Amino acid sequence: MCPQHITTKERFAIPRQGMPAQNPEVRNKNFKEVNLGYTPELAQKEALRCIQCKDPACIKGCPVNIKIDQFIKYIADGDFLGAARKIKEDNVLPAICGRVCPQEDQCEKACILTKKYTSVAIGNLERFAADYERETGNVELPAVKAQTGKKVAVIGSGPAGLSCANDLIQLGHSVTVFEALHELGGVLVYGIPEFRLPKEIVKQEIEGLKQLGVKFITNVLAGRSVTVDELLKEEDFDAVFIGVGAGLPWFMGIPGENLLGVYSANEFLTRVNLMKSYQFPNNDTPVFNCKGKSVAVFGGGNTAMDAVRTAKRLGAEHAYIVYRRSEAEMPARLEEVHHAREEGIEFLMLMNPLEFVGNEQQWLTGAKCLKMELGEPDESGRRRPVPIKDSEFILPIDMAVISIGNGSNPLIKQSTPDIEVSKRDTIVVDLNTMATSKENVYAGGDIVTGGATVILAMGAGRTAAKAIHEKLMGIETHE
Amino acid sequence: MHKIVSAIFLAENIKKIEIEAPRIAKKRKAGQFIMLRVDQTGERIPLTIADADPEKGTITIIVQGMGKSTKELNTKAAGDTISDIVGPLGAPSHIENFGTAVSIGGGVGTAIAYPTAVALKEAGNYVITINGARSKDLVILEKEMKAVSDEAYITTDDGSYGFHGFVTQKLQELIDSGTKIDFVLAIGPIPMMRAIAEVTRPYNIKTMVSLNPIMVDGTGMCGGCRVTVNNETKFACVDGPEFDAHQVDFKNLTDRNKLYLPEEKQSAEAFAHKCNLQ
Ligand SMILES: Cc1cc2nc3c(=O)[nH]c(=O)nc-3n(C[C@H](O)[C@H](O)[C@H](O)COP(=O)(O)OP(=O)(O)OC[C@H]3O[C@@H](n4cnc5c(N)ncnc54)[C@H](O)[C@@H]3O)c2cc1C
Ligand SMILES: Cc1cc2nc3c(=O)[nH]c(=O)nc-3n(C[C@H](O)[C@H](O)[C@H](O)COP(=O)(O)OP(=O)(O)OC[C@H]3O[C@@H](n4cnc5c(N)ncnc54)[C@H](O)[C@@H]3O)c2cc1C
Ligand code: SF4
Ligand code: FES
């Protein structure tokens, strides 16, 4: 099939190209990446499925409006580097987003082909282009504009902070990123596991920013090590961007939550990913020994999927997802749910924990659960789960991981009372500029939205960078 | 990377280490701690900032070798480096002029109590210190404690030095002899803190303890350090580490600190083996 002479009918006839992956029975015992990526042949074939719409719906479905039709055309034409560069005009972290974006709710949901066929595999193609560029050593550092003499502090090195730093450094500002942990990358390193997002990719993105001149200082917890006011007044930063994420794990507030063997997803994943406890005792940090045990993860989002698949990889005999609604309501990426099921994860839907029970030594032995059924839809349009009377039973488990979401860490709020926060302790901003109520202080990502997505955090970081630039340079904007 | 400026043993297995950490030295307040990772494969462990010199840009920690991480740290000497230090963490001690304040330290808890004893003195309190050790050669910071105390007592379990008995007995003796005590700070092993809480409870003496749950990040992100205080869950690394002794669920803390006993043993044995080979 020659890309120049293919008819629309022929395009429709090509099936969606599956993503090559490690065998489930092999991968559920290792931490290597599950997906292997398209070969150039697969990528070109998939790219040919795109009918190059005049008014592409997919672009509107993308939170940062990547020029999807154009980059796919480059791939179809075999210009893979051209494709990568086209994506990077709008998305600074394509290798990451291609792997973790919920495409089925965004671009792929909007793709015109979904009406009759299945959508173009936009995420897989995005990943392919970015990987190709990186793996062939063709990543080009963007040009940096003349120095402006302005200094910006970025707090937090997750996707919001990284993308903000990326844009500001290119505009000629001096940028320093302060990170609380000893590793850079935020959730991308401490939350999302290696088997879904290899840390090497995150590292290379950060390496690129270092080469552009971004200064990174780890082990600085803003609010304790330094306050926002001190950054502005004593360390002479002209502006501050706060991208500290949603890092305070919620517990369920049910009895037995402090028994031994009950973890937050953040703790479990941090021990395994950031502290590499799957390599214990070569790494010093231990984690619950899952071998041959029953582990239940409570929740239905990406974090829950990551936790349950991690437990399986650590040798759990039974690894359950316990979710109070039905599978259709689970917020996790579809691919992760498929992968989890293939790997032998057991899904216990419509089930709500009431209490954790333990033995004499206070080790967890089970979760008392109540079965639910779907009732009327609630405000969010999802059918509300209602308890089935007298359906209580005890699910025998050795470890429980609570993955019901995160709130905001109170440190910034406590140390900078003049930044306005919402009732949920998220920072209030003007969404056009990401400016907070405090002069020259901006915020974006999960600390503003509550737990959301990588791409939204990235978009927010870029919006803030633009506004900070305009403010510092005295550029008038006409809305 | 943080350079160790000096490192000396104060007693067997207890080392005083001064490290370069200018940002922390400038900001730290009494009662705060750091999380430290010795090297790239190390775990993050919490240690109290025993002292700091903002001019020199250094902080001092006093470390008791308990298991792999602290024993490895105690092999370090001046000139060596520490991979990561973050801080100051935790809420500073609540300091005011209570009147008569008693600072009680058990073992390495003496080092943790020291900066708060200093702050209590500076705030104008009449400061009584009671520092306990198993025996004479394990007594630490005697001179320093004396310097900030209006009355200073040392207790040893075996009677080899000072008062023969436990810190609780010394405290009870003070109360019985009519000393009016307005505030007690007790830091040491959990059974000691628990016992002190029971000594002061009948007299309604405000008593604070510094809790030592197992921590990971120390920033409030994981909840591993959660403790039960007044029937509520608190994160010791942000809400604490100091809490009202009369409201703490010590049993839950004791239980939770046993979470990794087999792994700790495995690490400690492997480390001892490695040391023997060298
Ligand atoms: C396990 C897990 C899986 C996920 N999977 C997906 C997925 O598949 N797809 C998707 O789109 N989204 C996913 N998400 C959500 C996504 O990761 C977040 O929405 C995104 O990372 C938010 O970016 P951020 O930059 O706002 O914050 P974060 O990534 O949380 O980064 C914040 C950074 O700030 C640091 N910090 C916090 N407080 C301070 C302070 N006071 N001083 C200095 N530094 C501080 C933190 O240590 C952290 O490094 C997942 C989240 C988790 C937890
Ligand atoms: C806020 C805070 C401040 C602290 N300040 C100091 C200090 O100034 N000096 C000092 O020597 N120690 C201090 N500790 C205790 C110190 O962190 C632990 O001794 C250390 O983490 C043990 O690590 P390890 O690998 O050497 O021993 P491990 O082998 O991990 O543990 C050895 C034994 O110590 C106990 N233990 C494990 N983790 C902890 C812990 N986090 N806290 C207490 N006991 C634990 C367990 O019972 C275990 O059996 C502090 C702890 C906290 C929470
Ligand atoms: S909507 Fe689908 S078919 Fe149309 S341009 Fe986008 S990816 Fe191609
Ligand atoms: S140590 Fe993780 S929240 Fe306190």
How would you describe what is shown here?
The complex is a heterodimer of chains A (479) and B (278). In chain A, 34% of the residues lie in helices and 16% in strands. Chain A has 479 residues and is α/β, with parallel strands linked by helices. In chain A, the strands form 4 sheets. In chain A, strands 3-2-1-4-16 form a 5-stranded parallel sheet. In chain A, helix 10 links the parallel strand 1 (151-155) and strand 2. The longest helix of chain A is centred in the C-terminal third of the chain and has 20 residues, at 454-473. The radius of gyration of chain A is 23 Å and the shape is globular. The model of chain A has no long low-confidence stretch (mean pLDDT 93). In chain B, helix 5 runs parallel beside helix 6 (190-200). Chain B is globular. In chain B, strand 9, helix 3 and strand 10 form a beta-alpha-beta unit. Chain B has 278 residues and is an alpha/beta fold. Chain B is built from 9 helices and 17 strands. The mean pLDDT of chain B is 92. Classes of the chains: A alpha/beta (479), B alpha/beta (278). Chains A and B meet through strand 5 and helix 14 of A and helix 1, strand 8, helix 8 and helix 9 of B. Residues 100-101, 155-161, 178-181, 186-187, 191-192, 220-223, 243-245, 247, 269, 302-303, 306, 333, 409, 411-412, 445-446, 451-455, 457 of chain A line the site of one flavin-adenine dinucleotide (FAD).
